[in-house]
Design a protein that fits this description.
The protein is mainly α. The chain is 81% helix and 0% strand. It has four domains: 1-196, Growth Hormone, Chain: A (Up-down Bundle); 200-255; 262-413 and 487-524, Growth Hormone, Chain: A; 424-485. One of its GO terms (molecular function) is transmembrane transporter activity.
Length: 524
Amino acid sequence: MNKQSKLNQWIALLAMGLGVFMGLLDVTVVNVALPTMARGFNTTFTNLQWVLNAYTLVYAVTLMIMSKLGDMYGRKKVFLGSLILFVIASAINGMAPSLLILDIGRGVQAIGGAGMMSLSMALVASNFEGRQRGLALGILGSIIGVSSASGPLIGGYLVEHFGWPAIFYVNVPFGIIAVILTIFYVAETPSYGKNHKIDLAGMGLSAIGLFAIIYGLIIKESHPHWSWFEPQVIGLLLGGLIIMITFVFVELRVTDPMMDIKMFKRPHFLGTIAVAFSLGAGIYAYNAFLTALMQNYIGYSAVQTGVRQLTISGWSLVLGPVAGILSARYSKKWMIVISLVIGGLGFFSMAKAISPTVSFVELWPGMVLMGLANGMVNPLLNTAGMEGALPNEMGMVSGLLNVFRQFGTTVGVVGLGLIQDAQFKNYLNANLHHIAMPSQALIGIKNALINAGPFSGHGIAFSERLSKMPFAHELQQVVIKAYDNGMTAVAITSGVLVILGALGAAFLMRNRMTNQDIELKKAK
């Protein structure tokens, strides 16, 4: 390959990296803009939830559909169309005159984000060969790690200096650059669906099933005091599960299925999706709780929080290319296992550090270990996932890894939130009655704190009204310790989830899978 061709490859990687960065950043960047949006639209945080949920839901349910369309009709075409759609939707969101338009725009933007994310790994795998492929996938893994964790920093800076529309407008110039580079430098992949029919039944069932399950989890997250058997929750979860089971039966019988269900018979593939799920449920879900700890309880601003969280995300920039190079020489499986164990130790270190006087000084060693794990595992997972996948499967493998990473994040946020809420409530019930205050006031304050939950409890305890009470200091200490009790449980649970991911990788993944291995398994 001549120097010009090699240069074109790396420019193509830049185009795909820009798309991935924008698509994943927009999953988290909106969080820090919500207070400003609430004032701008003169509405409540509750009404703003769909600005977040519309993107999360549509993004998750369209990942596999966009993957399949890319495999069938050319990944470059679908990636490019997704990129253009994302840029247009970003511009509309920045100009949105009402909350309804913004919510719809976020859903459209998510379709573009899903297309970019689901096809990027497959395009990189088909645009590079040999050791260069491992390095390129490693760099893409770096971008995934950085974009997922840098939302608070980038969002905080843009909102603070330019207002909330800037978090959408910033996508436009970078998106246009990515479109131009994609057109001229990204090589198209073959179309594997020339003689295939679109599996409309499979696409519809997968979208509806995933939507129901994820929306059910979002409702449970929004109402932590509801029972799992609340009709709105159990109905969606059970309905979604039944639809997904139906989806499997349909795919086994369709001539041209959306997804080859037999992929799930491969232990190596199961190991990679177990790692993807543990990354989402452990590291990415925990980031939301860490951000709340640093902002609500320690008192850092959004930008100060984002700068300190570079202790986690910064490692992705350094370790992605390194992981890509090492993956050509050493076992990706055992590098993933060791990295996840290091991440688990980081969570246990965080759990030990949490106290009423905790600051960044006590947290950073654990954050560094989390960052090392994230920085190593993401790029290695990309390479391991693509390893052994047949050319016509690469888009779907990429999409499924992203589905399980996103699904893990959703499950993690809900599960960790319920654990934190239970520990917060238990500590309040056990310790509030020790405070010398009128019994009527005690009941009212306890109910208010429990209903507000761990995130908002701090605002109640430190409100101007309660701060003037003679028992204020004692009450505030109990609330902080209750919150710490919940955060400790969250950190330990996250550590266990990451360690379970390491065990899944150790027992299921193979040291090296080749296309020949897959062909033999399919023949059987």
